[in-house]
Specification:
The protein has one domain: DNA polymerase III subunit chi (Rossmann fold). 32% of the residues lie in helices and 25% in strands. Strands 3-4-2-5-6-1-7-8 form an 8-stranded mixed beta sheet, with helices on both faces. The chain has 153 residues and is of the alpha/beta class. Strand 7 and strand 8 form a beta hairpin.
């Protein structure tokens, strides 16, 4: 049974935080799916991930290609099981996550922009929905300059 980790971005943008979280997930041996809501935004993230980190290489692909199942990191708009057999799902830009996904995967990460009131409300709604369904959840904030766990359910 997995858990949902909520990451409240207040100091750095998504494109700076995402490669670090992906690196940690890959270090745990997990394949990763990144779920978004907007095709253009996912294409933009795809480009950003090719440029970061400067001292490394982050192999990944956009879903819909011929090799989705082989991608260690797959950017997708699709709900449901990731096409690459991911054990970790990272939801960005308010992408929905179902309670059964949290239960089936090793980890679900929900990243949201602290400067966006709509994103904050969507994250709060997801927290309430997932915890009411019995999912384990943690809330992490970088407000102090480093990641700190602020809540757990």
């Amino acid at each position: 049974m997995g858990a949902a980790y909520f990451y409240h971005l207040t100091r750095r943008p998504l494109e700076a935080v995402l490669p670090q979280l992906i690196d940690r997930a890959r270090g745990a041996g997990w394949r990763v799916a990144i779920r978004g809501r907007n095709p253009r935004r996912m294409e933009w993230l795809d480009e950003k991930l090719w440029l970061e980190p400067e001292d490394g290489f982050l192999p990944h692909g956009l879903s819909g290609g011929p090799h989705d199942a082989r991608q260690p990191v797959l950017l997708t708009l699709d709900e449901g099981p990731p096409g690459n057999g991911a054990a970790c799902l990272m939801a960005v830009d308010g992408a929905e996550v179902a309670a059964d996904e949290v239960q089936e995967l090793e980890r679900v990460c929900i990243l949201f922009d602290g400067g966006d009131g709509g994103a904050l409300e969507r994250a709060r709604d997801q927290w309430r929905t997932l915890t009411a369904a019995g999912c384990a959840a943690q809330y992490w904030s970088e407000e102090s300059g480093r990641w700190e766990k602020k809540a757990e359910a």
